[in-house]
Structure formats: structure tokens, C-alpha cells
Write a structure and sequence with these properties.
With 216 residues, this protein is mainly β. It has helices spanning 135-144, 165-172; strands at 3-6, 25-30, 45-49, 57-59, 80-88, 95-96, 110-114, 132-133, 148-151, 177-179, 193-195, 206-208, 212-215. It has one domain (3-8, 51-215): Glucose Oxidase, domain 1, CATH 3.50.30. It has a nine-stranded mixed β-sheet with strand order 1-13-11-5-7-9-10-4-12, with helices on one face. A two-stranded antiparallel ribbon has the order 2-3. A two-stranded parallel ribbon has the order 6-8. Strand 9 (148-151), helix 2 and strand 10 form a beta-alpha-beta unit. It is globular and about 65 Å long.
Length: 216
């Protein structure tokens, strides 16, 4: 029997993802009472105004580099039905170095770093002291040919480092990044296939995804 494991945070109006970016806002364009079709049916039509960096989202290379691949240019092979390798780094501390990168063949795989920092989601603690990948760990992932890199943390970089080495190295290598993942403790390395597909936004740099794992 197929089983699904949720790896993304739900989007709620007013939620904070990354300070000081704006929070999502819902605008009702047509409510049930206003949309009656001669009394035979009714519909809700609404707009969700949000920043691309909301909830659990994917960064395309364009997020870091002006002329790089945008969301519409990402290959589906990097985002859907991708084999998963999970790195449990819960005992390492904030800086996740190259020794924490899983051994073995990572080519074409989604490498997900489980820090359990997502337990702070929705609290003030989430915005301070996040775990992050070092430049050396990012270089190792790029060299290994990872297809996708995710983390259950505020940022894949140390937010105090304005050079953003993890973003720079991974996105330069064409590897999409997924931040603010959750529930990584519920999945095992090598089990299941990841799906984390954003909309095909031409010119878009980042956008929320419904990230999940499919277990057969």
C-alpha cells in the first residue's frame, strides 16, 4: 500500500516564515453568497498574496544569480520522484560540515538534512541560532552530483554570513534548495521518493511547495 509523509508546513494567513519578509494575506474575490448561479450552485474564489519565501519553499538558481535558471527552468527530475538520502545531523550542532554529508552515491538524489530545528516553527526561537551547511559541505554535495538539497531549518546558511556560501555553491551548481522542511524524523534514508514541485513561474526565483515523500 502506498503511504505519504508530509514534509511541508501549511500556509496560514499572517504566518511568519523569515523576518522581515511580508506575511501571506488572503483576499476573497467572490464569496459563496455573491457567486450564486441562479440558486443552483455557489463558489469561493480567493487570492493569496504571498512572498515566494513563504512556508516550505524551493529556491531556484535565479534566487542567487541574476541570469541563472528560474523556477520554470528547473528540471522535473530534480523535483519529483527523486530518491532520498537523509542525513541525521541532530547531534552535530549549528555548523554542518563535510563529514556530515552522507557517504555513498548521491548522484541524482535528494539529500535532506534533519536538524529537528522545525520543532521551533511558529515561535520566536525559530528566528535565532539556526543550523546551517558550511561552504565545504555544500561543495561536497555539488561535487557528488546531488539533485536536490533540503533542510528543516530557517535557512541553509548561517544568517549572520552575508556571503551565503551554501546558497552560492549549491545554486551555482544548479541544485535547487528547499528550506523550512518539517517531519524529517518520520522518514528513513533510502526509503521513498521525494516530490517538491513549485509552480513553473517564468522569472520566479523562489516559491512554496507541498513537499512529501511517497512510500511504497
Amino acid at each position: 500500500m502506498t503511504r505519504f509523509v508530509e514534509l511541508s508546513h501549511p500556509i496560514v494567513e499572517g504566518m511568519e516564515t523569515y523576518r522581515p519578509l511580508p506575511t501571506p494575506r488572503v483576499e476573497v474575490l467572490n464569496d459563496y453568497d455573491a457567486s450564486r448561479y441562479d440558486g443552483m450552485s455557489e463558489f469561493l474564489i480567493a487570492a493569496l498574496h504571498l512572498c515566494g519565501n513563504t512556508g516550505t519553499y524551493v529556491d531556484s538558481p535565479r534566487h542567487r544569480f541574476r541570469a541563472a535558471i528560474d523556477l520554470a527552468g528547473l528540471r522535473l527530475e530534480q523535483l519529483a520522484d527523486v530518491p532520498v538520502v537523509v542525513a541525521d545531523v541532530t547531534q552535530i550542532g549549528r555548523a554542518i560540515g563535510p563529514d556530515a554529508v552522507p557517504a555513498g552515491d548521491l548522484h541524482g538524489k535528494a539529500v535532506l538534512f534533519r536538524t529537528d530545528f522545525s520543532r521551533h516553527w511558529g515561535t520566536d526561537s525559530y528566528f535565532h541560532g539556526n543550523p546551517f551547511l558550511t561552504a565545504e559541505a555544500s561543495d561536497k554535495l555539488a561535487t557528488a552530483g546531488a539533485a536536490f538539497v533540503g533542510i528543516d531549518s530557517l535557512n541553509i546558511d548561517d544568517v549572520a554570513d552575508m556571503s551565503r556560501p551554501a546558497h552560492t555553491r549549491l545554486l551555482r551548481a544548479g541544485i535547487p534548495i528547499c528550506e523550512h522542511m518539517t517531519n524529517l524524523a518520520a522518514i528513513a534514508s533510502g526509503a521513498g521518493r521525494l516530490h517538491a514541485v513549485p509552480i513553473a513561474w517564468v522569472g520566479g526565483a523562489t516559491f512554496p511547495v507541498r513537499a512529501y515523500l511517497v512510500l511504497n
